[in-house]
Specification:
Layout: H1 38-41, E1 47-56, E2 78-96, E3 103-111, E4 122-126, E5 132-142, E6 151-160, H2 163-171, E7 173-179, H3 181-185, E8 191-193, H4 194-218, E9 219-220, E10 225-226, E11 235-236, H5 238-247, H6 275-281, E12 294-298, E13 318-322, H7 329-334, H8 375-378, H9 387-396, H10 403-411, H11 418-435
Parallel strand pairs: 2-7, 11-13
Antiparallel strand pairs: 1-2, 1-4, 2-3, 3-6, 4-5, 5-6, 7-8, 9-10, 12-13
Helix pairs in contact: 4-10, 4-11, 9-11
């Protein structure tokens, strides 16, 4: 007789599946990435009203009060935001106070997220009758819980602007900044310290001056392209010309519409990566593949097909040619080799004598056949680089440029030799365009 009688297999209950959560449960994954929405907030509702906004400087013991001319500046301080923009949703409206029978002028506007307005803030604005009024913020409302959110303010006209109120406000300003709307649209800090704003304005003027001068001096009406100066023969640099046509347009200099990129096809080595490629793409890794030495070769050695408008039919005598280009897969597979022997290189007969150990604004061009920049630049050496080369490395490594140093270099460009201007002014244009968009 069996000790254990097995159960009927038909009556064995199946093991229920193991559940780690209830069927109705739905997990929520929170994306903690911060995605700025300033590009959209820039176009928030309202008509633009440019004002001088006096934002209160507050601490834990401060009261939200409007301007009081009787208060000492120690107890009431402001940050002045010049040319600030309010987005008006309700224009100025006039009503009469029932108790005092005085006229009350009020309005409503949206405020960009760069500023958190407080009750008691003041601003000065044109009220449309040829006079300026001084307004006080009476209500400030935050519109959402998100970081990038605008505020809605109600404001009231306190008085017409008088000398007494203007002087009182100015004496209480401890910091002055200026609002630049274009920076807000580009995701940059739109509030610039006044001194930085003046420097930015000067850099913009210098950029316009440099662009206009460059094409008036180096653009040839005869050959419709850029010609290297101070050479015994007519020399053309296709790498520099192509780069300038990429970074500039007719808004920078009208003469650029007369400048053409000449056809230098017929030699695969003319497609080599250059330092200009690294500058335009803002990619320091490209310097590893860029040729570092260059020479001049006869334009007659390029394609002689007249239908292709080759440079050999242009009247130009010599073309800048890479000596040490990086060998690519096509060169290896197709057996391409340098077909044009190096003959000469661009010289600077006006080059100043540079003392070792001294940091100059720019280096001499083509020393030891080094293309555009010095060997110290290509090696990123700690010594031997010019101020401009140091700024270029700051640019390539995505560091903010020192605008004071950049302004000092750009201000002295007229003292450079013609060859230095020919090669280093395009570099300066790239740095200035970068600096004017990066704070």
């Amino acid at each position: 007789m069996a000790i254990v009688n097995p159960k009927n297999p038909a009556t064995v209950q199946p093991i229920p599946p193991l559940r780690i959560n209830k069927p109705e449960y739905r997990a929520t994954i929170v994306d903690t990435r911060y995605i700025p929405s300033t590009d959209l907030i820039t176009y928030m509702e309202g008509s633009i009203w440019t004002v001088d906004y006096y934002s209160q400087v507050l601490d834990v013991d401060s009261q939200l009060l409007g301007q009081s001319t009787s208060l000492n500046p120690v107890f009431q301080q402001y940050q002045l935001i010049s040319s600030f923009e309010l987005k008006v949703t309700t224009p100025l409206s006039t009503s009469q106070d029932v108790d005092s029978n005085s006229m009350v002028v009020t309005g409503v506007a949206n405020v960009y997220p760069v500023l958190i307005p407080n009750v008691g803030d003041m601003f000065i604005a044109d009220i449309g009758d040829g006079r300026s009024g001084i307004f006080r913020v009476t209500v400030s409302e935050r519109k959402s819980i998100f970081k990038d959110t605008c505020h809605v303010i109600d404001y009231q006209l306190i008085d017409y602007l008088t000398d007494e109120r203007r002087v009182d406000l100015d004496t209480k300003v401890i910091k002055q900044v200026r609002f630049i709307r274009d920076f807000l649209a580009n995701g940059q800090n739109p509030l610039l310290v006044e001194s930085e704003y003046i420097l930015q304005t000067d850099l913009k003027a210098l950029l316009r001056k440099i662009c206009n001068r460059y094409f008036k001096v180096f653009a040839s009406n005869e050959f419709k392209t850029l010609i290297a100066p101070s050479q015994e023969a007519r020399c053309y640099d296709p790498f520099l010309t192509a780069s300038l046509l990429t970074i500039l347009d007719t808004f920078d200099a009208e003469e650029i519409r007369h400048v053409k990129k000449l056809n230098c096809d017929g030699d695969e080595y003319m497609k080599a990566v250059s330092v200009w490629s690294a500058l335009i793409n803002k990619d320091k890794e490209m310097l590893k593949y860029a040729f570092k030495k260059a020479s001049l070769v006869s334009a007659g050695r390029f394609d002689v097909n007249g239908m292709a408008e080759s440079i050999c039919h242009s009247g130009i005598q010599y073309v800048v040619y890479p000596i040490d280009p990086e060998i690519t897969i096509d060169y290896d597979l197709l057996g391409i080799s340098q077909k044009i022997a190096a003959e000469y290189h661009i010289t600077d007969k006006f080059a100043p004598v540079h003392t070792v150990g001294t940091i100059y604004d720019v280096s001499n061009v083509n020393v030891n056949d080094s293309y555009v920049f010095s060997e110290a630049f290509y090696n990123n050496a700690q010594t031997g680089q010019s101020k401009l080369e140091i700024c270029v490395w700051d640019y390539l490594e995505d560091r903010a440029l020192d605008n004071t140093v950049l302004f000092s270099i750009a201000s002295n460009f007229s003292t450079w030799t013609p060859v230095q201007q020919f090669y280093y002014l395009p570099v300066l244009m790239i740095l200035l365009k970068y600096s004017l968009r990066f704070i």
